[in-house]
Write a structure and sequence with these properties.
Length: 107
């Protein structure tokens, strides 16, 4: 979300998988060191080193420097206003999502 595109992107699922297991991620130049560090820890291939999977669980993420100014109590109480609210015409409105070609059902 910070970049506007996913960290592992490719046309074919196998290519996405290969990028994920390689563990190599390139960040946009405007990303600060704290954000890069947080993302590296969240995208860690080794489950025993990945944030959210360690002994402290979610507290490793919530306690990270990048979230230093985040008031987690206000987040929990839903008092934080969203920085962006997309326009939505109704429950079935998908205009905020990418279009994908329909694939024929294979049986």
């Amino acid at each position: 979300m910070a970049a506007g595109y996913p960290p592992f992107f490719a046309d074919q699922p196998i290519q996405i998988y290969e990028k994920i297991v390689s563990g190599k991620v390139r960040f946009p130049s405007h990303f600060g060191s704290d954000l890069k560090d947080l993302l590296r820890n969240l995208l860690q291939v080794d489950l025993t080193k990945r944030y959210g999977n360690l002994k402290a669980g979610v507290n490793d993420i919530k306690g990270h420097k990048w979230f230093a100014s985040t008031d987690w109590i206000s987040v929990f109480q839903k008092k934080i206003e969203a920085p962006f609210i997309p326009r939505c015409k109704g429950p079935g409105d998908t205009s905020n999502f990418d279009d994908y070609e329909e694939e024929a059902l294979r049986i």
